[in-house]
Amino acid sequence: MNYQASIITETDETVADQVGSNIGQLYPLFSRSYPKEFKVSAAYKATLPDLQNGPSSLIKGKNAAIQHVGISNFRLPLNFQKRDGGLISLDTSVTGTVSLQAGSKGINMSRIMRSFYDYAETNFGFQALSLAVESYKADLGSFDARINLDFSFPMKVKSLRSGLSGYQYYRTRLELADIDGQTSKMIHLDYVYSSTCPCSLELAEHARRERGQLATPHSQRSVARVSLALNETKEYMWIEDVVEAMRRAVQTETQVMVKREDEQAFAELNAANPIFVEDAVRLFAEQFSEDDRVIDYRVAASHQESLHSHDAVSVLTGGGAYFSSVIEPHFFSSMIHVG
């Protein structure tokens, strides 16, 4: 028994050696240690494959031009200039795309990111955005380009009566599009407010007056998203300007710091400003329709009902060529704000 086991063991080792020898002939032995000391020379770099810039024979599917190809949700801190001249660094999500001609295999995505790092220390307004667009259009050999910067812009606001103050954050998107040599610049901003239903308010007062029945009107957190195409020949429109215009239109902005006297004041403010969703978009539009800094606008509002299991929504456009009145089904679900 022991002799047989020894024979089997020796045979197995012999076979393994033969197999290993054959594999060694077919496949080279690779290093399994990371080469920390290895340096990339220009000559070595020139040998690296680059499939994205390969010939059109590598294209899969229809050899057609692509309108948008790039990156989404590339994050980095960027500096923004405030209206008072101060700077603020904000965590920013970048979506950057370029066009791709038919016959071109692809683009080098990292060049888009490198363009942003080249300007990361710049005051990142629309001027710096333009420089970034020109940079990666040149790097990638594209005709069209588009950049979106998404961030939350903080503004300190006072409470209604107690004198406390806190920061309100406004979801903001700066968009720059360079299409067919024409540049357009847009601001998109979400404004969160409370909407008290005028009908419900009247019915509640009727119950009190006619039957001595205590009743409360329904109100709910609501969101308006304004999109503004900017006139580059006019005075610069700051984010603070947009927020203040929204506040003038609908005064019942949600509160940050609240004591009892503020809560009572907010109830009184809502009762003084009951509003349907149709009223909301018209009031917001009124603020921007006569502003010469704005070429075109779109206002969308969503009243996220406490009475119904669905929301009340409305869209109003300025009638220019920048914004379509057609809204995709998921648009309003993107307006849900979580505290």
Please describe the structure with a list of short key phrases separated by commas or semicolons.
339 residues; alpha+beta; 8-stranded antiparallel beta sheet; 8 helices; 8 strands; 30% strand; disordered N terminus
Can you walk through the features of this model?
- The protein is an alpha+beta fold and 339 residues long.
- It has a domain at 144-335: Urate Oxidase (Roll).
- The protein has 8 helices and 8 strands.
- An 8-stranded antiparallel sheet has the order 1-2-3-4-5-6-7-8.
- A hairpin with a 5-residue loop joins strand 1 and strand 2 (87-100).
- Helix 6 (239-249) packs across helix 8 (277-289).
- The radius of gyration is 30 Å and the shape is elongated.
- The termini are far apart.
- Mean pLDDT is 87; it is low at 1-8.
Could you name the CATH homologous superfamily of the domain at 144-335?
Urate Oxidase
CATH architecture of the domain at 144-335: Roll
Query: What multimeric state do the chains show?
Result: single chain
Element order, helices and strands? Answer: HHEEHHEEEHEHHHEE
Q: Helicity level, as a percent range?
A: 25-40%
β-strand percent reads: 25-35%
Number of helices, counting only DSSP H or I runs of 4 residues or more: 8
Uncertain spans, ≥5 residues at pLDDT below 50? 1-8
Kindly provide the name of the CATH class of the domain at 144-335. Answer: Alpha Beta
